[in-house]
Automatic annotation (TrEMBL):
GO terms for molecular function: acyltransferase activity. GO terms for biological process: secondary metabolite biosynthetic process. It comes from Limosilactobacillus reuteri. InterPro entries: Thiolase-like. This is RtcPhlas. Gene3D superfamilies: 3.40.47.10. It comes from the Bacteria. Coiled coil: none annotated.
């Protein structure tokens, strides 16, 4: 008799969030460069201060702290994790596995799959999609997914985003038991265009497009709308079936732009990043993880 594959639910078993203790008010950065308006960032972007790392903090330490919290909140131990995925665009090492370094901080286990994902500032969500795929294909039973960035260290001094760009990490454990939130589907939409990049020989992330609005329209609005429509179609759902949306960026008018593009009439502005700033790969994961609690 042939064994039959029984499809089981895949979802989030536990999670953890870590952000630096230090804060830098938006006005302190703008007062140095005189390149922006404090009131505009405070009110229009909804950011009063940003997180900044101390001398003993980086992408890996924040990721490790959030991972330890996720494990503490789980019935699993570090030795039970058989895949670890780190989404980040500010990893300290380019040619060396940062995910493997984090795993070495958690356990002396060697029989696991480790992978760095550095495709964009939304790499945390890419890591989540890959983690889900590993469990869906039964190549993994318990996946530790991390989104971590220290953009405050990698943003070019005097760039317009500097005053509200911070640092943080979010980790979640994907599995098939004791699930807090079930993953029902994934939708994709990608393209290559002039956006933001950090080249091999550079510490700083730079904007390649003529205007940041071009990055928002091409990279966020178009891609988000397409991917959302794709996943809804794949799951036989409509916009009316969704109670809560979490977008890749949750500061400024970007959520409102995306809501308008999706024809979402009622929209509630959240203030969770008011004293955190934009956290790169961790931002959408943190917004997503806060949702079950609210």
């Amino acid at each position: 008799m042939e064994a039959q594959n029984i499809m089981t639910d895949i979802g989030i078993m536990s999670y953890g969030i870590a952000v630096p203790y230090l804060r830098l008010p938006v006005k302190d950065t703008i007062n140095v460069w005189k390149n922006n308006n404090v009131e505009f960032i405070n009110q229009h972007f909804g950011i009063l201060a940003r997180t900044v790392v101390n001398s003993d903090e980086d992408t890996l330490t924040l990721a490790t702290d959030s991972a330890k919290m996720a494990l503490t909140n789980s019935s699993l131990k570090a030795k039970d994790i058989d895949s670890i995925l780190l989404g980040s665009c500010s990893t300290p090492d380019i040619f060396k596995s940062n995910a493997n370094q984090i795993m070495s901080f958690l356990s002396n286990k060697h029989t696991y799959f480790g992978c760095d994902i550095r495709s964009s500032e939304n790499s945390g969500m890419s890591a989540l999609a890959l983690g889900y795929s590993l469990l869906k294909s039964q190549l993994s039973k318990a996946s530790l997914v991390i989104g971590s960035d220290t953009l405050c260290k990698n943003i070019f001094p005097s760039e317009l985003r500097e005053s509200y760009t911070g640092a943080g990490a979010a980790s979640l454990i994907l599995g098939t038991e004791d699930i807090l939130a079930k993953i029902v589907g994934i939708g994709n939409s990608n393209a290559a265009f002039s956006e933001q990049c950090r080249t091999e020989d550079s510490r700083f992330i730079r904007i390649l497009a003529n205007l940041n609005t071009a990055v928002i329209q091409e990279g966020l609005v178009k891609r988000c709308v397409n991917s959302i429509n794709n996943v809804l179609s794949n799951c036989n759902l409509s916009l009316n079936d969704i109670d809560h949306f979490v977008f890749p960026e949750n500061i400024g008018n970007i959520p409102h732009i995306l809501a308008k593009a999706l024809h979402i009439e009622t929209f509630e502005d959240k203030k969770e990043f008011e004293k955190l700033g934009y956290l790169g790969s961790a931002s959408p994961l943190i917004s997503f993880l806060i949702t079950p609690e609210t």
